Amino acid sequence: MITEKEIARINELYHKSKEGGGLTAEEKNEQAKLRRAYIDSVKANLGVYLKDIKNASKEDGASDGDQADAKKKVKKAMEATDKEIASEENHVIEIAEK
Description:
1% of the residues are buried. The protein has helices spanning 4-18, 25-60, 64-87. The longest helix has 36 residues, at 25-60. The chain starts with a helix and ends in an 11-residue tail after the last helix. It is built from three helices and no strands. 77% of the residues lie in helices and 0% in strands. It has one domain (4-87). It is elongated and about 55 Å long. The protein is mainly alpha-helical. Helix 1 packs across helix 2 (25-60).
């Protein structure tokens, strides 16, 4: 799981990259690792949520075929999202100030 401190660092690196100085190679590496960790964290949380939905579906009497089809659709959608994210040059992750 990613911490608020790591999210703040992602935002800090983003803002630094947009300012005149840019990022060093080391900072770009750090930024990429932090973004990957953030994406993995979101996907893991989504997986838990979807598992809960699947379990609720079983309780409601949904057939195994319906569940398998839904699982394939979710996997395909997640793969498409991963490809889209990988193809983007600039990833922006901002959190609102409290």
